[in-house]
Amino acid sequence: MKYRAKGRKSSGHEFAEFAPALFILLVCIVPPMLDLLYLGIAYASGWYLNHLETREAACAPPSRVSDALARARIAWEASTLAKFTKGREVSAVPNPKDVNPTDNFSPDTIQITTQVQVAPFLQIPFMGSIPGIGAPIIFSFTSERTQEERGIN
Q1: Residue 108 Cα distances to 24, 101, 152, angstroms
Q2: What is the DSSP code (8-state) at residue 116?
Q3: Is the CB of residue 118 less than 8 Å from the CB of residue 84?
């Protein structure tokens, strides 16, 4: 006598449940997941631009900070990371800070605020108004570094 478990029979009707599950997985879960993974890479790309700009601005005399920011932006746009993320710089605002204006030997700092706009990896039609998934998103970064060159020499 064969033992047979009560419940479903293994006659092949599992495929009827597999098709809707696969559709939901491939349409509703995978594309937003890819977009969210892509946002992490895009955020890292924007941080990298801010880091480049801060480093270049700290090494340039205060009168040439705008040229240093332009060089950093051009170098970032030529990188593979920026091309992959389809990012573009919205703004880069330098903010020099004089820690002690009466002392020429105190370390001055420069603060750079960078905004980067990134287009989503996949355009999902039913999520059109969500930034980063259906619409472009703007990331804002701020960093500060000691000013190495003060333009005194």
Answers
A1: 56, 9, 13
A2: E
A3: no
Reported as a single tens digit per residue, the pLDDT across 3-59 is 666 665 666 666 677 888 888 888 888 888 888 899 999 999 999 999 999 999 988
Distance CA 153, CA 148 (A): 12
Give the span between the Cα atoms of 95 and 125, in whole angstroms.
40
Q: Work out the burial of residue 40: count CB atoms within 10 Å of its CB; fewer than 13 is exposed, 13-18 middle, 19 or more buried.
A: exposed
For residue 109, what is the enclosing H or E element?
A: strand 109-118
Please answer whether residues 78 and 63 qualify as being in contact, where contact means their C-beta atoms are separated by less than 8 angstroms: no
Distance of alpha carbon 111 from the chain centroid:
19
- Whole-number Cα distances in Å, 1 to 4, 7, 10: 10, 18, 19
Beta bridge partners of 113: 93, 142
Q: Can you tell me which residue has the tokens 């605020």?
A: 113
Tell me the whole-structure pTM to 2 decimals: 0.78
The string of DSSP letters for 6-38 reads: SS---SSTTHHHHHHHHHHIIIIIHHHHHHHHH
